[in-house]
Automatic annotation (TrEMBL):
Residues 1-11 have a biased composition (Polar residues). Regulates the biosynthesis of dolichol phosphate-mannose. Regulatory subunit of the dolichol-phosphate mannose (DPM) synthase complex; essential for the ER localization and stable expression of DPM1. Part of the glycosylphosphatidylinositol-N-acetylglucosaminyltransferase (GPI-GnT) complex that catalyzes the transfer of N-acetylglucosamine from UDP-N-acetylglucosamine to phosphatidylinositol and participates in the first step of GPI biosynthesis. May act by regulating the GPI-GNT complex. Regulatory subunit of the dolichol-phosphate mannose (DPM) synthase complex; essential for the ER localization. This is Dolichol phosphate-mannose biosynthesis regulatory protein. Component of the dolichol-phosphate mannose (DPM) synthase complex composed of DPM1, DPM2 and DPM3; in the complex interacts directly with DPM3. Component of the glycosylphosphatidylinositol-N-acetylglucosaminyltransferase (GPI-GnT) complex composed at least by PIGA, PIGC, PIGH, PIGP, PIGQ, PIGY and DPM2. Interacts with PIGA, PIGC and PIGQ. Residues 1-31 are annotated as: Disordered. InterPro entries: DPM2. The chain crosses the membrane at residues 45-68, 88-111. Keywords: Endoplasmic reticulum, Membrane, Transmembrane, Transmembrane helix. Its main location: endoplasmic reticulum. Pathway: Protein modification; protein glycosylation. It comes from Dicentrarchus labrax. Belongs to the DPM2 family.
Amino acid sequence: MTSRGQQSPSDASCPPVLATGRRASGNVSTQHLSETEMATGVDQAVGMSLVVFSLLLFTYYSVWVIILPFVDGDHVLHKYFLPREYSVILPGIAAVVLLLCIGAFTAVVMWKSRKPKKVD
């Protein structure tokens, strides 16, 4: 096997090496992962809470932007939502913050990976 994970003609009969360093035997998807490779209960709980939060946020925003304009202005449903102009302002601010975080992360990674110049 070459360093890039491609099989050479001499080891075509060997099963491929998995990312864990083990050789695949049979159907890779049916192999059991060791305990160190599986998500813990805390990881699963955090992941599920993020999914639930995202679904609630998406539902709230969808109702606010799509359904609320067709509801009368004096209906009780309007007291649970901000004014309509915030439906554009808040995602805009979130997008700017996200782009700033991505830019800062990229700058830090590039700064840490730079090689010092040689002094003659």
